[in-house]
Automatic annotation (TrEMBL):
Keywords: ATP-binding, Nucleotide-binding, Transport. It comes from Methylobacterium oryzihabitans. Belongs to the ABC transporter superfamily. The keyword ATP-binding applies. GO terms for molecular function: ATP binding; ATP hydrolysis activity. Residues 9-238 form the ABC transporter domain. Pfam families: ABC_tran. Gene3D superfamilies: P-loop containing nucleotide triphosphate hydrolases. This is ABC transporter ATP-binding protein.
């Protein structure tokens, strides 16, 4: 197995407090190129705190977060340059087309993207050609997410962060998004997904971690369990000592 120096993301003993509340309690997590890691946990378990820590929006009270060797606490801009994020609701400019949104968002990231290059990225992200020229105000959640994936492709992000990416998607759109994420991983992107979706992670994730009260209490190979067994293990893990 590759060494720690090959990691795209390293979280080492990360601890975050909000007043008297311990949001992360010595979290350790390593993610390498081409891996998809699903972070499962109930509300309040620390999933969003973990994402914000990686992005440098929070500073750890103890421990370190490294993105491609860059310390997200002391070098947040450099760490974010290696990272793309697709939140639960991707915000686009409603009066711009998908193509125009991608080119404008690329410009904000310091990139000059031709129309042809933008179309190629949108094609790779699975956005239909006819939709690329439509106003984003007409887009479904799944279509907005595809523009977000295209932004990540254009930026050549080495780490992709997904926050509840399949919530609100119908089964067909959810399955399609799973395929897009797996394709990104095959291109070498490391993917960290914070989610509640037990069923979809079996198709998307190489590894699954269960987060409870800010600690990674279980790591699971989803390929070894069916949906029922995965759900039972998840619930049993949360019940062991009480959920956060």
């Amino acid at each position: 197995m590759a060494g720690e120096s090959d990691a795209v993301l390293e979280i080492r003993g990360a601890t975050v407090r909000f007043g008297d509340r311990l949001a992360l309690d010595g979290l350790d997590l390593t993610l390498r190129a081409g891996e998809v890691f699903a972070l499962l946990g109930p509300n309040g378990a620390g999933k969003t705190t973990t994402v914000n820590l990686i992005l440098g929006f929070l500073r750890a009270d103890a421990g370190r977060v490294l993105v491609c060797g860059r310390d997200a606490g002391t070098e947040p801009v450099a760490a974010r340059a290696e990272t793309a994020t697709i939140p639960e609701q991707v915000a686009l400019y409603p009066n711009l087309t998908g193509l125009e949104n991608l080119r404008y968002l690329a410009t904000l990231a310091g990139l000059s993207l031709s129309r042809d290059a933008a179309r190629r990225h949108l094609d790779e992200a699975g956005l239909a050609a006819e939709a690329q020229g439509r106003a984003a105000a007409t887009y479904s959640k799944g279509m907005r997410q595809k523009v977000g994936v295209a932004v990540a492709l254009a930026r050549r992000a080495r780490l992709l962060l997904l926050d509840e990416p399949t919530s609100g998607l119908d089964p067909a759109a959810s399955a399609e998004f799973s395929g897009i994420v797996r394709a990104a991983a095959r291109r070498g992107t490391a993917v960290l997904m914070a989610t509640h979706d037990l069923y979809r992670v079996r198709e998307m994730a190489d590894r699954v971690g269960v987060l409870r009260a800010g600690r990674l209490v279980e790591e699971i190979d989803p390929g070894r369990l069916d949906h029922v067994a995965l759900e039972r293990l998840y619930l049993d893990t949360l019940a062991d000592g009480g959920a956060a």
